[in-house]
Amino acid sequence: MNRVTHLLGIKHPIIQAGMVWCSGWKLASAASNNGILGVIGAGSMYPDVLKLHIQKCKKATQFPFAVNIPLFYPQIEELFEILFEEGVEIVITSGGNPGLYTQRMKNRGIKVMHVIANVKFAKKAQDAGVDAVIAEGFEAGGHNGRDEITTMCLVPSIIKAVKIPVIAAGGIGTGRSMLAAMSLGAEGVQIGSRFAISKESSAHDLFKEYVLSAKDGDTVLTLKELAPVRMLKNEFYSRILKLYQKGTNKEELKELLGRSRIKKGIFEGDLIEGNLEIGQISAIIESIDSVKTIVQEIIMDYESAKLNLFSFHD
Amino acid sequence: MNRVTHLLGIKHPIIQAGMVWCSGWKLASAASNNGILGVIGAGSMYPDVLKLHIQKCKKATQFPFAVNIPLFYPQIEELFEILFEEGVEIVITSGGNPGLYTQRMKNRGIKVMHVIANVKFAKKAQDAGVDAVIAEGFEAGGHNGRDEITTMCLVPSIIKAVKIPVIAAGGIGTGRSMLAAMSLGAEGVQIGSRFAISKESSAHDLFKEYVLSAKDGDTVLTLKELAPVRMLKNEFYSRILKLYQKGTNKEELKELLGRSRIKKGIFEGDLIEGNLEIGQISAIIESIDSVKTIVQEIIMDYESAKLNLFSFHD
Known about the structure:
2 copies of one chain form a homodimer.
Chain A: H1 3-8, E1 14-16, H2 25-33, E2 38-41, H3 47-60, E3 65-70, H4 76-85, E4 90-94, H5 102-106, E5 111-116, H6 119-128, E6 132-136, E7 142-143, H7 151-161, E8 166-169, H8 175-183, E9 188-191, H9 193-196, H10 205-212, E10 219-222, E11 229-232, H11 235-246, H12 250-257, H13 261-267, H14 291-307
Parallel strand pairs in A: 1-9, 2-3, 3-4, 4-5, 5-6, 6-8, 8-9
Antiparallel strand pairs in A: 7-11, 10-11
Helix pairs in contact in A: 2-3, 3-4, 8-14
C-alpha cells in the first residue's frame, strides 16, 4: 500500500497507459483485473465509441479503471458528458491546461491525474487540484514534452516541486525499471510500450511484431514543429526526414502527416505508411505476453532486483 | 564490494567523470581520497599540462585515479606516451574507436573503460578487450551520442548486450539516482555535473553559480550536425538557435563555435560567449559542496532511499 494504491483503490501502484489504438476496454479491463489501473485511451475514439468501451469495461471488471482524455480533443465537451453519465471514477488528462476541467471533475468526486513533462505544468496541475501527476520523460512513446527532460531527471525535479504523488512514466517496461523509478521517489509507474504489444492490446499483430524487432536507437522524437512525438523509424519517418533535410515548414509537415496515420500504423498494421508510435524501451521488450504474465513478471523482477541491490555497507 | 570496486581498487563504485576545464589533479585527487575514482579530464589539456596534472595527482593521493582521453584528441600519441611514462593505471577512453588503442594499453597492464551510448559500440568495446563500459545517456552534459537513448533505456539494453560490468552515466547526481541506476543493473555510476560544480572543480565560480541557478529544461542538446553536445541555454546558445531558425549548415555552425568556447564558459566564467556544457541533472543541484560532502551525502541518501523502497509484499 502507498498513496497511489490508496488513491486509486488498486492493488499495485502500476498504471497501464492509455494509448491510442491499443487500449480499449479489452486491455483496460485485463489490467484492472490483474491488480493495476486499466486505462481506456479516448484519444482515438469518437464519443459514441468511447461510451461503448466504458460500458463494456464496466461489465468486464469490477475493479477501478480510468479514461485518458487528451485535452486537445476536438469534441471534448461530449467526452466529459459521457464520463459523467457513465460514472467514470478516475480520469487522466494530458496535453493541455489542467485548470480548465479539473474542478468540474473533482466536484463530481472523480479522481484526476494529469500528465506533465516539466515543473511548471506540474505546479499548475497541483494548483488546479489534481490528485497526482504523471511525470513523463523524453523516452516515452507518442506525444512528448518540448523540454526533452528524461525520466531520470524529470522525476526528482517534480518530486521537489509538488506535494501530491508523482507517478513516473517513460522508459519503464520491467520490474527493474519500475524499481529505478521508485528509487527516484516516484510512488507509482505508468507503463505504455510493454502493454501496447500485450496480447490484449488492440494493436495489429504486424505492429506488435515490428515493435518486438526494434533495437536501441530505432525510435526517434520528431515533428517538433507540430507536436513532438516519438515513433519507430520506418518509410513514413524517412519521408519526414527527407523534408527536414531539404528544409521544411509546419504546413508541409502537416500535409505529410495528414490524418489517421497512427490508426494506419498501429491498428491496421501498415508498417510503411503508418505512424508507429512507441517508446525507447521497446528495444528491450522480448515477447508478446498477456497482461497477467506482464504484471507477474514485473513484480517478481522488481522484488528480486530489490533483494540484490548493492549496499555501501556490505 | 562488487565487480567495479574490485576492478578499480576503490571503496565505492562511483566514478567522478573526467570533464574539460573542471577535473584537473585537484578534483581527481579529492575524489580518490574520498573512496571513489578520481579522473583527470585530458580533453582540455596540452600534453605537457596533462603530464603535470598526473604528477601532482600522484603526489596528492595514494589511491587509484584515472585519466580520460577523448580519442579524437589531435596529439593522441603524445598523450599515450605520457600515460605510459607516468605509469597511469586506469584509462577511460571516449568518442572514438576503442579497437585502436585498447590492446596497447592492456598489454601494459592498464585497466581500460570506454564510454558508449548504444549497443553497437558497447559490443565493439567489449570485443576490443575493455574491462568495463560506461553507458552514458541522453541527459548527460557535454558530448553526447547520436541515438538520443536515455540512461533509463540505455543501461538495460547494454546489460543485455555485454558481459563486462556496465557503469551508468547521465542524469545521476544524488544517492537516489545512483540507486535508480543500480536498480537497472549497473554496477557503478559516473557522476559529472555534481562534481563539475564541487569546491575542488577548477570551473569558474560564475559558471558554478549559473549551474546552481539552472532549472528543468534549461539545458539543450544541440550542434547535432557537428557533434551533439548538451549545454545550458545562454546568449551563445541563442545565436546557435538563430542560425538554425534561418536554416544553417556545418560550416556556419563551425564558424560560430570557433575555438575555446568551452574554456571561455567553464574556466573563464564568460556566461555570455561561453559554451556552458552541463547535464540535465543540474536542475536539482542545490549547493556547491566539497567532494567529501558530496560522497557522504550520496551514500546516506542511497542507503536511506533503499531502506524505504516500496515493496509489493507490504
